Amino acid sequence: MTTKDDAAEAFAGESQANRKYKIFSEKADAEGYSNVAKLYRAASEAEAIHAKRLLFLLQQVNSTEENLKKSIEGETSEYTSMYPSFIKDAEKENDKEAATIFTHAMKAEEVHATNYGRALEAVAGGNDLEISKVFLCPVCGNIVFDSVPDTCPICGVPGRMFKEIE
Question: Where would I find the Ferritin-like diiron domain in this sequence (predicted)?
Answer without folding.
Answer: 1-127
